[in-house]
Prior knowledge:
Elements: E1 3-9, E2 14-17, E3 20-28, E4 35-42, E5 50-57, E6 60-75, E7 78-87, E8 100-102, H1 107-112, E9 121-122, E10 132-134, H2 140-152, E11 157-159, E12 163-165, E13 174-176, E14 184-189, E15 197-200, E16 210-213, H3 215-219, E17 225-228, H4 239-249, E18 254-261, E19 271-274, E20 277-281, E21 284-290, E22 293-301
Amino acid sequence: MTAVLSIKNRDGTLLSEEDILSFNFIKDIYTPYTSLSAKVRTSRTNFDNAAEVMLAIDNSLIHHGLIDDLKIEKTGGEYFLSVTSRGFTSLLCQNQIEPGLKMNISFNMLMDNFYTLPYVTHENNSDDSSYIYVRPNTSMWDAASNLAYKLLGTYPYIRGTNTVMISPFPAPEVFDFTDAELISHGTELACRHIASDYHMADINGNYGTFDLTDPDAAALKIVRHKYFDLDMRFLYAPQQALYFRDKFDFRGQKMLFCSYSGFCGEDLYDLVSFTGVTAERIGSIKIRGSSKGIFTETGVYRDKFPH
């Protein structure tokens, strides 16, 4: 397999590097962007005009993002380029919306009517039956998360390089590693964010009306209480504010994964089967490359959000 790192300059010039010493690529349904770190040996001595980063594996583009950090250095008579990058959808976390109530807003309107973000696209959903209440310092991603939950009970994720989705991809690819020669497979638990009890004030600021106790947290011997003001985002059904927080804190609690040599082209919300997993939606993809080859870890989540 061949991996190519490309740097796009401000003027659109594309600089491709194939002598990649190492790279790490991560994509996850609970992260609003793809992330990449890479180091290459290069014959170039200057990347001062660099603006964008791309990574392709066997001509399939898996990352296209902004430059977070870029370093060029000469050592031992050779030049080495190190770069870290996040996909353009990371801009959704860095742009805020004017606070207030936004009535009859669809996902299309949310994504199209506030800012034009380079290369960011989204699925088509024109359902304008809902609203969002934008609190101060709310990012576009937070607003998208709130709207996705209201419309479909889901959490948004990234498909392709920079496409925002709020519903399961309708035509998933199917990957069956049941009989494949795997490097490893296993289970990972993450419990650091889980809370046991949620308490929300009513319109008068009093507590005791809106409470939620998570029995799964109790079974894990977790005692963490959270108190918060009335969440205006859920005035249509106040108890949903508690359910949403519970699901969000429980996100990624259990992941089943497998790793193999190479990369088969899977994406988030494709279907995968391997030991202990049958046709479940992919929630995590990690690809690493070095002189030893390219290796992929693919995982599925079992938590409280629908998958």
